[in-house]
Write a structure and sequence with these properties.
Cytochrome Bc1 Complex, Chain D, domain 2, 177 residues, 4 helices, alpha/beta, elongated
Length: 177
């Protein structure tokens, strides 16, 4: 092999390395821009809210017609739903994040479990009324603060067959489950 062909191979290898590095940096920048975009939950922050005002708004807006809150004394509903009251709060394996609570209130059909029909109407939408035009932002913030105080997240013992996220636990790819 002559000196010229060795130099040519080195140049090709260097070009490949530089190309891979540039692509890696570009992918990193794209991912960073995706995470920082305006509709990302990371950019979503509301004021802290007031627990007492949240409890009052929960009652005032009629949430007590369908919901109870664990370990909280609330007025009795005027007419309890045929399926029974849905209890909020308590100990769970899944975190109820600020964003999940806001979404559950403002767009209740978004994370609805359609398998359990008691929460849905004949069209598959949430039975929960639409509060978008009935609730102030202050009421929303206060209700979310009130509800967050009543959720306790239970972290189960570590199981190497699963990986855990704030939103649930899933089988690891190697666990075969």
């Amino acid at each position: 092999m002559n000196e010229r062909s060795k130099s040519s191979k080195k140049e090709k290898a260097l070009r490949v390395v530089v190309t891979v590095l540039i692509l890696g940096v570009l992918l990193y920048i794209v991912q960073l821009l995706y995470l920082l975009r305006a509709d990302s939950p990371r950019g979503f922050v509301l004021p802290e809210g007031n627990i007492a005002a949240g409890k009052a708004a929960f009652v005032e807006l009629g949430c007590i017609q369908c919901h109870t809150v664990r370990d909280i004394s609330l007025p009795s509903p005027e007419k309890a739903p045929a399926e029974g009251l849905i209890e909020l709060g308590g100990t769970q394996r899944l975190a109820k994040t600020y964003g999940q609570l806001v979404t559950s209130i403002m767009h209740p059909s978004a994370e609805l479990h359609h398998a359990e029909g008691r929460y849905t109407d004949s069209n598959g939408a949430s039975r929960m009324p639409n509060y978008q035009s009935q609730m102030t932002v202050e009421q929303l913030v206060d209700i979310v603060r009130f509800l967050q105080e009543h959720y306790n997240v239970f972290v189960p013992d570590y199981d190497p067959g699963y990986y855990y996220t704030p939103y649930g636990y899933y089988p690891t790819p190697l666990s075969g489950q």
